[in-house]
Amino acid sequence: MRTTRRFRWMTVLLLTLAGGCAAMAERGVEPTEGKPVPLDRERPTVERVGGLLFRGALDITGLNGVGGLSGLWVSADGARFSAIGDTGLVASGRLTHSADGRLTGVQDVQARPLPVEEGVASSKRRVDAEELLRLTKADGTEGDWIVAFERDHRLLRYPQDRRGPAGVPTPVPTPTGVTDGSPENGGLESLAQLPDGRLLAIEEGEEDTLRDPTRPRRAWVTASPGVPRQEADWLPFHYRSAPRFRPTGAAPLPDGGALVLERRVSLIGGWSTRIVRLPPTALRAGADATGQEVARLEHPLLNDNFEGIATRPAPGGGTLVYIVSDDNFSPFQRTYLALFLLP
């Protein structure tokens, strides 16, 4: 008798789930993916870190082969995202948000190889993509893609495509001294288009030493709006990160400034992440720029090897800030996609 009741109960449950999935399919709604994670596992109600308000985070480790993500782009309406990985990977999909704007899931995630000049390459040196930028046209619509590579230091421009960088790329002039003078594993990791149309680039540089913990990083802005046509279009300045931190990503702010993502790792403290605000006045030739720390993620807060950052306007005012971590395809790391509000 007990077995019969259990069987009937399981039958009803399975039919209910099947009906729910069928209804979703009829409405064209796909189930969301990604495991929600709190800002602070020890205190799940914590919703603020520094000057940022937490708006949700997802663990998307290994989702459809996604991993190693180093650069991130999110559409102005928050519906779509694209990311690139340092193993020559392009990931794209859709984002879901709750009615109050919290990040709740991802859908239709796809991953594919990132083509380079010779097509799909297997050499790590050729496909070590570290930063992703989507150009905005003069009318405000989405344009071409630019990807920054290190090891074989270069910038490649890809034609406009909703799936992310695809097709046959063309080279973009890099700042003087980058191609032959950047550290092999410390090239251009921060790239952004500012609201006035100029481009911003910051070199990750060498790891800081105890003797020189505040060594400036090389940085550049273009002299005028648009994609540079020659090396001389890049104007140099210096960017100073916090001691032992290295810049790994940049994104524009509506006031003409930018947010810079910085990362530090140590055997004792693990991963640390800073989000730093650069005012518009710092983004000029010859400047010695030190940004203002907006927030710092350290244990016990959500943290990992955060390398990608993207921004978009918040519907109710302020700026929404997305960051993504590079799990290095390591079983000891995770791929997190987190959302914050900068009021």
From TrEMBL:
Signal peptide bounds: 1-25
Keyword vocabulary terms for this entry: Signal
Record domain Phytase-like: where: 65-329
InterPro entries: Phytase-like_dom, UCP031900
Region (Disordered): 160-191
Superkingdom of origin organism: Bacteria
Descriptive protein name: Esterase-like activity of phytase family protein
